[in-house]
From TrEMBL:
Organism whose genome encodes this protein: Eulacestoma nigropectus (wattled ploughbill)
Family assignment from sequence similarity: Belongs to the TRAFAC class TrmE-Era-EngA-EngB-Septin-like GTPase superfamily. Septin GTPase family.
Name under which the protein is recorded: SEP12 protein
Pfam families cross-referenced by the UniProt entry: Septin (PF00735)
A GO CC term assigned to this protein in UniProt: cytoskeleton
Subcellular location: Cytoplasm, Cytoskeleton
Keywords, in A-Z order: Cell cycle, Cell division, Cytoplasm, Cytoskeleton, GTP-binding, Nucleotide-binding
Stretch list, region Disordered: 1-41
GO biological process: cell division
Record bears the keyword Disulfide bond: no
Major subcellular site: cytoplasm
């Protein structure tokens, strides 16, 4: 009876309505529109660049990365391509200020021009101020030295793709290594003979094919054989050749990340190809020991920007763009190879 009397009584504040009130134990239903509009607090957008009220220590992650890199070291693989006698080995030794080239590592061997292009890699571990770098230098003796140089770039393309394939096989393993050995070529320095005219068909065809799979940096070898006027004119002709044949050498315009990178790379692109001079002997100049080449007219200082553009090449390869070379190799060239290989393996009937 108590329950029935309770139901017959009008609810408080209900006015004169005599309709019985039915109560349910279920929670009240939420309209569908309200459910869609509701945004969880965890994904609500916050203010950009939030101001901190005190020191948190976020910047310490840079020190952590530096300590870890110094402990583990890093890898850098460079390839030098060009005819014999253009100073490739001397240039590599000059870049790293140590005898890391093929000829320096194998002294006493008689140098013969091979009948076909042979690739030889030398690996060194060099250290500077506690930072270790595993450097691999790949030389290409025999390139461009034959009477018939048809398809002389094929062994080089095969070698570069083999390094991509080796990395891909390690990457797709079920149980992968914590750190996959990286033998991929991060940069290819192409030595152009100092003819003072135009690029040869061999130069154009090599850079057209290789620029699609690796970072190609062209340089004018033995630039001290040209006058400053000849050097400037030759450089302009090479830039016109590259633009006419749509050859994109490093740093590529398509991969500039932001306006600052574009401004820096535009200045570099204006100077490419770098007119370089290599030397691994020191000379006394104004009381200082400098790397250079001694001639009848004086000493050509390798690291003097007024004499040659070797400092620009060194800065590009080591001081400013080394990590960028590795990033583009991994994110662009290797990625395109990986996609192509996986598409081939996933085709029906294979």
């Amino acid at each position: 009876r108590g329950v029935q009397a309770h139901r017959l009584c009008p609810p408080r504040g209900a006015g004169s309505s005599l309709e019985p009130e039915e109560r349910s134990m279920e929670p009240p239903a939420v309209p569908e529109e309200e459910e869609e509009e509701a945004v969880p607090l965890s994904v609500a957008p916050g203010p950009v660049g939030c101001q901190l009220f005190g020191y948190v220590g976020i910047e310490a992650v840079l020190d952590q990365m530096k300590i870890k890199t110094m402990k583990t070291g890093f890898e850098f693989n460079i390839m030098v391509v060009g005819q014999s006698g253009l100073g490739k080995s001397t240039m590599v030794n000059t870049l790293f200020k140590s005898k890391v080239s093929r000829k320096s590592s194998q002294p006493g061997q008689e140098e013969r021009i091979p009948k076909t292009v042979q690739l030889q890699s030398i690996t060194h571990v060099i250290e500077e101020k506690g930072v270790k770098m595993k450097l691999t230098v790949t030389d290409t003796p025999g390139f461009g030295d034959q009477i018939n140089n048809e398809n002389c770039w094929d062994p080089i393309i095969k070698y570069i793709n083999e390094q991509y394939e080796r990395y891909l096989r390690e990457e797709i393993l079920i149980t992968r290594k914590r750190k996959i050995p990286d033998t991929r070529v991060h940069g290819c320095v192409y030595f152009v003979p100092p003819t003072g005219h135009w690029l040869r068909p061999l130069d154009l065809e090599f850079m057209r094919r290789l620029s699609k799979i690796v970072n190609v940096v062209p340089v004018i070898a033995k630039a001290d054989t040209l006058t400053l006027e000849e050097r400037a004119e030759f450089k302009q002709r090479i830039q016109e050749n590259l633009k006419t044949h749509a050859i994109s050498v490093y740093p590529q315009e398509d991969f500039d990340q932001d306006p600052e990178d574009r401004a820096l790379n535009d200045r570099i692109r204006e100077k490419i190809p770098f007119a370089v001079v290599g030397a691994d002997q020191e000379h006394q100049v104004n009381g200082k020991r400098v790397l250079g080449r001694k001639t009848k007219w004086g000493i050509i200082e390798v690291e003097n920007p007024a004499h040659c553009e070797f400092p620009l090449l060194r800065d590009l390869l080591i001081r400013s763009h080394l990590q960028d070379l590795k990033d583009i190799t991994h994110n662009v060239h290797y990625e395109s190879y990986r996609v192509r290989r996986l598409n081939e393996s996933n085709r029906p009937g294979q």
